[in-house]
Hints:
Blueprint: H1 44-52, H2 60-70, E1 75-78, H3 85-98, E2 108-113, H4 117-130, E3 138-141, H5 148-155, E4 158-163, H6 165-173, E5 184-188, H7 190-193, H8 199-208, E6 214-219, H9 224-233, E7 238-241, E8 252-258, H10 261-273, E9 279-282, H11 286-297, E10 303-306, H12 312-323, E11 329-332, E12 347-350, H13 357-364, E13 374-380, H14 385-395, E14 401-402, H15 419-435, H16 470-474, H17 485-492
Amino acid sequence: MPARFKPAGNDFSDPGAHPRLVPDYIQGVHSENFMEFSNLGLNPALLRAVAESGYTIATPIQTQAIPAVLQGRDIMAAAQTGTGKTAGFTLPMLQMLADTPAAKERHIKALVLTPTRELAAQVQESIATYGVHTKVRSVVIFGGVNIGPQIKALKQGTDILVATPGRLLDLYQQKAVSFESIQMLVLDEADRMLDMGFIRDIRRILAILPKKRQNLMFSATFSPEIRDLARTICRDPLEIDVSPRNSTVKAISQEIYMVSKENKLGLLAKLLSETPDQVLVFSRTKHGANNLVKKLAGFRLNAAAIHGNKSQAQRTKALSDFKNDRIQILVATDIAARGIDIDQLAMVINFDLPQVPEDYVHRIGRTGRAGASGLAVSLVTEDETKQLKQIQRLIKIEIPVKRFDVQDLPQATVKEVPETAQRQQRQASGANRSRSAGNKPRRHPESQEQGARSARKPQGRNSKPRQGNQQTEANAAAPKSGNRSGIWSSLKQGFGQMVKGAA
């Protein structure tokens, strides 16, 4: 999303002269990368929507990407997490499709692929926000929900389709969607989309698409291998890199604690108990996330887990509870590292370091967004020193080490509570948090929701496996912030399609 600030004057020759108005990630950027939206070639309808959202100044990635997309260029764009990549492609896409004829039955004009359901919902939300004064129609589809409403939504055709790969292939195989009219392809979080877990589905989709199309690839990180692969998809792409590759936002303070495995849980409980703010905690595995929620309940810390084995309803509820301040702690695997955008999230803790160094950038990018300050803390055991060195080599920063006294670590005081009692305590905790303005009690334990969802194996010799890459869709990022309850209420009701009609 664009930066939320409005300069008092029009003199941008020295952005540093307005430190109060310029987010930290734009400080020191040259004036040509620091422009008003009105100077980017956008039409009045889009400028009106941008202004109604409270924005006037484009971020550097938007300043460079929007004019290039409007010119029809293929693009590979890398920018730090939280600097407005989504608006960088949704705004010009809306303009290019605004005056085109309505799509034919089951046809689409622009396809946006995302690695996860949550990120797909976020992109659709952005399209709806900026396209409110246009007649551009958009639909979002993803797995984990009823496919029927999605087939119905696609039957009349749509200008923009936002999709996860697995469900898109399911619908294509059912002849519910045609790719013949596609003019534009967008890969959001392109490094993840083209990584090993997604490459097969992406190649299948690319083989079906028309050869003549505009290709846009946006991501926070691009490894050299991924960049080489991307060049085989794009035609003479314009490479945009508005910040050092794989860098972290300056507004995020980073710290590490060297700790033994025996003291790791106690140190986490101490850090969580000492902050009144909400915290996003990252675990390396799904089982570890569930187990961590149970263990934190013993310290009277209110937490919920989100990961790929959770159903869509469970994932949506956990995010909704966290976004609406009903729980203080969200424990996540890397499913939440991409796309999740929570207002004023002050702290991220890596209980386990990620196996892939680039994922560290995405994890800590959940805090310090749009110029706000944030704190990223990593708890590092002896067997994780190799990952730590790889991370520091990637971000070109030596993260300072903090010390602690083992004698100060708390001990669990509550035994594990039966699930029914935990649910009742969670509801009471949520009610207390809603009544208490500013005070955030953490007195009631909450275990993770049960009912883990795994891929069903075919039964019997004649049974056929389910089509689509459901496992892939379940193992990546999470959604957008703000008080936009419409998107999330739709998800709760199990509707996998959201259609934006004429304004």
